[in-house]
Automatic annotation (TrEMBL):
GO terms for molecular function: metal ion binding; metallodipeptidase activity. NCBIfam families: aa-his-dipept (TIGR01893). InterPro entries: Peptidase_M20, Peptidase_M20C. This is Cytosol non-specific dipeptidase. It comes from Schaedlerella arabinosiphila.
């Protein structure tokens, strides 16, 4: 049964609900890509789908706009897939269960996918309309933005005639984004040796943290469960004979990790649990109201033989967790309050004979990205790890001269009654890759208010979406 029927703008939320029924996590985009192709074919629109599942749909300009320069509307098809610990939702097969609460659209126990489903829905609404006034529209739907930006990196932009690009992948409706940070993913595997050891097993879960977007929310001082687990394990190993048997935390490097699960083996269960309780109380004082749900849960696994890391291997794994930088590294010296450089230790995963770490680094300055490569690489080398760099993307540099930016600012002022702030952001946007491939692109990014993206608390403000839809329509009407 439709949940969003009657919510304005109806034409946008109709498509948002339709695409919410299609599983579309990163690297699982064939279904949503095929949906977009079918949408275009049914409306006899020009459509192109590449081997990566990127899609370009073209619609001619309306009467009086036939010879106008095309405007590109761009968003990404994939979404971050996060859910509560209790949820049995399968992101490979299940539709999202949408809900409306207190003026927001959200999803039951999962991420909502408004990042970036709302962009796709608005673009589809433009392509579907027979009443809007607009120049030729080129809708560009990319894939795997949330994990690698492979879609934007591999799309053939020679198929696009337009040079003005509207990216709808921003999450605060009082500002226009005209630049963003670049970044890369650091992957490290530390080899581990294991032995049999008898003792009392404990499953230790650092949990209840807010998590969130590792770019937009990195400056909010939220706890990272992987870093906290490293701190806890270091203390346990220092003060007791505690062995690490397994450790796992996080699923994506671009999400601030909310849960880490470690299995440890101890000779003194009572003392270990006491130390864990002390650490929990210390953390609650440190984080206060910023992390009200912060908890450490302990499950007793019984006394028996366990396959555990050797003492040397434990030191290396815990050493990486403790010493890996995490969070804001530096603020901009030219734009006060803007994060310049940060990193996020997003994934820790036990494997058969190693532990894998994934770190996402962001910076608006290329030399700082190089510095972080050296810092992380040196740490990995010191601990005997094997490491690599991938999924790099360039910064999107602010352009002083722009045609689309003043049109957009005027439209915002007409709808919101105030001039929007024009800024750059610390999160990565595809505009950097796209403008790198096509330097003449004149890009702007904006979007409706969203909160707690990349977490199962994600929600989209309905009233804000309605205003942004009005803004988009005005921009298109004025691009004659």
């Amino acid at each position: 049964m439709a949940v969003l029927t009657g919510i304005e703008p109806k034409e946008v939320f109709q498509f948002f609900e339709e695409i919410s029924r299609i599983p579309r996590g990163s690297y699982n985009t064939k279904g949503i890509s095929d949906y977009c192709v079918k949408f275009a074919q049914e409306r006899k629109l020009d459509v192109y789908q590449d081997e990566w599942n990127n899609v370009i749909i073209k619609k001619p300009g309306t009467k009086g706009y036939e010879n106008s320069e095309p405007v590109i509307i761009q968003g990404h098809l994939d979404m971050v897939c996060e859910k509560t610990e209790e949820s049995d939702h399968d992101f490979l097969t299940d539709p999202l269960e949408l809900m409306v609460e207190d003026g927001y659209v959200t999803a039951k126990d999962t991420t909502l996918g408004a990042d970036n489903g709302i962009a796709i829905a608005m673009a589809l609404a433009v392509l579907d309309s027979d009443t809007l006034e607009h120049p030729p529209v080129e809708a560009l739907f990319t894939v795997d933005e949330e994990v690698s930006m492979d879609g934007a990196a591999n799309i053939d932009l020679s198929r696009l005639k337009g040079t003005m690009l509207i990216n709808l992948d921003s999450e605060e409706d009082d500002r226009l984004t005209a630049g963003c940070a670049g970044g890369f993913r650091f992957s490290c595997e530390i080899p581990v040796e294991k032995v049999q050891a008898k003792g009392q097993g404990l499953l230790v879960e650092v949990c209840g943290l807010k998590g969130g977007h590792s770019g937009v929310e990195i400056d909010r001082q939220r706890g990272n469960a992987n870093k906290l687990a490293g701190r806890l394990l270091y203390r346990l190993c220092k003060e007791q004979k505690v062995r690490l048997a397994e450790i796992n935390g996080g699923a994506r490097e671009n999400v601030i990790t909310s849960v880490n699960r470690s299995t440890v083996v101890t000779d003194d269960q009572e003392q270990t649990i006491r130390l864990i309780g002390e650490m929990k109380e210390a953390w609650r004082q440190e984080f206060g109201a910023d992390e009200p749900g912060l908890d450490i849960r302990v499950t007793e696994l019984g006394e028996k033989e366990y396959h555990v890391f050797t003492e040397e291997s434990s030191k290396k794994v815990v050493g990486f967790l403790v010493n890996c930088p995490n969070g804001v590294d530096e603020y901009s010296r030219s734009l006060k309050g803007l994060v310049e450089t940060s990193d996020n230790l997003g994934v820790v995963k036990s494997q058969e004979d190693s532990v894998r770490f994934l770190v996402l680094v962001r910076s608006g300055i290329s030399s700082k990205l190089e510095e972080f490569k050296d810092r992380l690489g040196a740490l990995a080398d010191l601990l005997g790890g094997n490491w690599s760099i991938d999924s790099g993307y360039p910064a999107w540099t602010f352009k002083e001269a722009s045609r689309i930016r003043p049109i957009t600012a005027d439209a915002f002022e007409e709808v919101f009654g105030v001039r929007p702030e024009i800024t750059t952001i610390h999160a990565g946007l595809e505009c950097g890759l796209l403008s790198g491939k096509k330097p003449e692109l004149d890009c702007i990014s904006f979007g409706p208010n969203m909160q707690d993206v990349h977490s199962f608390h994600e929600r989209l403000e309905i009233a804000s979406a309605e205003k942004i839809w009005k803004v988009l329509k005005i921009i298109l009407k004025r691009c004659k």
